[in-house]
Amino acid sequence: MANEFAKMRHLRVGLIATILVVAVLGLSLIGVVSDPTFDPAAAGAWLSMLAGLSLGIPLVAPLLLAVLASRQVDIEHQGSGWLLQTTAGLAPGIVCRAKFCALGAVVLLATLATSLVSLALGRVLAGISAPPPLGHWAGFTACILVVNLTLLAAHVLLAALVENQLIGLGLAVLGTLLGLFSKNLPEVLAHLTPWGCYALAEAASYRDGELVALPISYPSFVALGVLGGAVFTLVTSRFDRQEA
Question: What are the entry keywords (predicted)?
Fold first, then answer.
């Protein structure tokens, strides 16, 4: 873990995470500022912020998560790091788990920062005076965190398996499109990919011309987290039994 955090200083991981937060916040505020019907005193004013986050995160997060994983793993391909660390007693699976834990801490902080700063901006910049729906907001944040960490784990595995990091980035672009299109698909189809789960986490949207809060299927995200963790553990355990 200490080695992975040390590598981050040279890979501009902090900058990428900051771009993630700023880009999502910018997209969430654009919808509020550009909406002529927005009323900061209305009881549902916070739904505009939630709708903006529900749109901004699937647009920005998949590609930047792929970039984070790619940069953190590609350094091992370029510098024969897998062989060097195996010689030191660290199998590839252990290294991948360390990379995920280190990057996961960054993604956790970025996701929480996005959620909390959005609350602050809604109050300060947008002037929303109504009390925020903290329960729904916290649930949305937790579900987004599960999807972000699942995608991060998938990209760490892909980056470790394939030296050409453009493949992971291309998959992230495709995933962004899947995440956006899944908003218009039945929930059963949205469950088929982790990017589609962004649509399942949508906290607010327009229905019949009216902005409303949307229910979130929390069991789906519990299942996603358990399945993603099990697959990541299984694959990295197989890495431990392979030669670098």
Answer: Membrane, Transmembrane, Transmembrane helix
Residues 171, 219: Cα–Cα separation, whole Å: 26
Contact between 69 and 103 under an 8 Å Cβ cutoff? The reply is: yes
To the nearest 10 degrees (0 to 180), the angle between helices 218-240 and 92-124 is 150
CA atoms within 13 A on the CB side of 86: 14
CA 117 to chain centre: 16
pTM of the complete model: 0.93
Phi, psi (rounded to 5 degrees) for 204: -155, 145
Tens of pLDDT, residues 97-138: 999 999 999 999 999 999 999 999 888 877 888 888 999 999
pLDDT in tens, 178-233: 988 888 888 888 898 999 999 999 998 888 778 889 999 999 999 999 999 999 99
Q: Which helix (H) or strand (E) holds 210?
A: strand 210-213
User: 84: Cβ–Cβ under 8 A, 6 or more apart, which residues?
Assistant: none
Copy the structure tokens of residue 243: 């030669």
The answer to whether residue 243 scores a pLDDT higher than 60 is no
Domain boundaries, the chain: 2-240
Angle at 170 between CA 164 and CA 172, to 5 degrees: 115
Tokens (6 digits) for 34: 């550009």
| Residues 200 and 221: beta-carbon distance below 8 Å | yes
- State the distance between the two ends of the chain, measured CA to CA, in whole angstroms: 19
